[in-house]
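Note to self: user wants both folds in one dump. Writing first protein now.
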Amino acid sequence: MSLTRHLKTALLATALALTGLQAAQAQAAKPQEQFFPLQSYRVGPYAAGGTGFFGGFIDYLNLVNTRDGGVGGVKLTWEEGETQYEVERGVEVYERLKTRPGIAAWNPLSVGIAYALIDRVTADKVPLLTINHGRTDTTDGRVFKYIFPLLVNPYSETSGIVNYLGTKAGGLEKLKGKKIVVLYHGSPYGKETIPIYELLAKQYGFTVQQIEVPHPGNEQQSQWLTIRRAKPDFVVLRGWGVMNPVALKTAQKTGFPADRIVGNIWSNSEEDVIPAGDAAKGYVAITSVAPGTQYPVLQDIVKTVYDAGKGNLQDKKRIGSVYHNLGVLNGILNVEAIRIAQAKFGKRTLTGDEVRWGLENLKIDEAHATALGAKGLFHSIHVTWDNHEGDGRVAFQQWDGTQWKVVSDWIAPDWKLLRPIIEKSSLAYAKEKNVKVRTSIDD
């Protein structure tokens, strides 16, 4: 080979090496992003919940980006897909956005959509968060590796409500002989707790009558006439969206007192009581997140996000409302899972499976909540690889005509009763779907 050819070959190799180095440097310099696909709903009968929750979620992501530069230098990004709370639309949004790089987790805030995604997210190895709702047996992380019903699942919520009614009656043993009506939304979400109410009725000796209200719940006259004839001691309102104020107004028309109605976790917002006017005064509802703007994290959002014109809510008066605060808390849980996962895997864009590991190590106690500016916003959460819910503690709040006031301590569910039921159901699912039951976080 001539000297000229040697020189040409060497120059070509050098050029290729420089090109590769420049490409690597460009890739390294490319901003890291963690993506949240949002199956939101801002129109339709459940728009109040959707705008409040997703507004709070986006506000918190904006806060972290603006104040902190993201998480570990990784910017948080998102894109919304309108579902109108419909399963088919939710699945369409999933299929359209699932190929986007750097997906952290899915947060649909819809039982129907969540059910439709269980097999999909498991195959794609990306976590699905169903805060305060979802399929109860997904609490068992041994079987449902990628599903996280954080804070409260439907059965622990039900147990918390019955425990609260026990305190109202003078003790759980005093529930014997009492009559409870459950007025539930005619959807998979509404029907989820039918068997657990039957079980708790046998456990404590009360009678239960469960009455369905067809979606969306604009007409309930016949149901409340049935309730008036039944003369229950308490009514549990397991509603959603427009069903809730209609229930309170119809109860007043039929003479049933609001202070003997206890709302579930999706019947506890300002949007549920304000439209009902004076019919809502005295109404009690369960909650996993406290209302109000007194928390430093909410004040940071106002100062950093809204004062800069980046707020997601059209009406600033909704800042600090139940739905908005739940969205903020959901943002905290997602972001802290990413932060925990980055400590193990590096400060970079994470895979969905790595975020799943972060969720399975998610622990926020009072000290951690204080550092986040969220002390008192919620009780605590400690997720493990086999318990994908956390502590399950709830409080109860009462509407005084202008605002919610917390009227109870934080109440724990009856885990000794619930966990075997959850495991029986999850193991049956594992057998049906041929899912290997995990024995550790590494499985």
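First done. Writing the second protein, which came from a different request thread.
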Amino acid sequence: MPLSEHQIRLVHASLPRLREKLQPASMTFYENLFAIAPDLRPMFREDLAGQGMKFLSTLNTIAEMLGGDPSLQTEIDDLARAHSGLGVRPEHFAPMGAALMVTLGETLGAEFTEDLRAAWRAAYEDIAARMSAAGSG
């Protein structure tokens, strides 16, 4: 289900605050992921600092493209191919999404309202569905 204009505006409005806290949030994301799905740990390199920054930077880039940027699907297709080559399967997206929601809540605190949570969840589910479809093609 596509995101509403309101949801896109909420996600976009939260990006500057997330960028402020990018460094600590990047490591927190992986701590949360491995607490939720420890079986995914072997899929990642030992040093996660760079990986975490790359994940949140990519998330930021994609979030900025929400709302009609014509290159969004190309970005998603490229990510899907790269992740598929690393062994990422559709069932991995659920724990990643759960870890993202926990991390966003921890990072944004009281700013992570129910509306913003719903907007980020919708954005993540849309992107994950597109990546799953593109990765299986």
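Dump finished. Worth passing along: DSSP finds six helices and no strands in the chain.
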